[in-house]
Amino acid sequence: MKNWLRFLIVTWLAIGSAFGFSFSRDSTAVDVVLAANLPHEARQTLTLIKTGGPFPYARDGIVFGNYEKRLPLHPRGYYLEYTVKTPGRRDRGPRRIIAGERGEYYYTDDHYQSFRRIQE
After folding, report:
1. What are the recorded GO MF terms, alphabetically (predicted)?
2. Which one of the listed residues 81, 101, 104, 120 is annotated catalytic?
């Protein structure tokens, strides 16, 4: 019976790792979205981030604190945030792309309540 349980645990961890899930307490799982499935404005913002701007909002490129801990935990300054234009809004709206130091990007359309990792 112990061997069977060990087999199940090892298999579960291997499958989870193969799909990019982390089982540590210091990491947060987020959904994935293909870059091609992002709204047009988000794809534009992603291009601006990768080419270094110019950015339409003064607060683009500021440090994102991850205070809600909905993204994997890293030291302050690891994440930067960028505004994604929201049609019909005069303010910055709720949509953002968060860029990680290692080249990972996350999209939120509900002002940090949920995130999806952008897969290109």
Report:
1. hydrolase activity; RNA binding; RNA endonuclease activity
2. 81
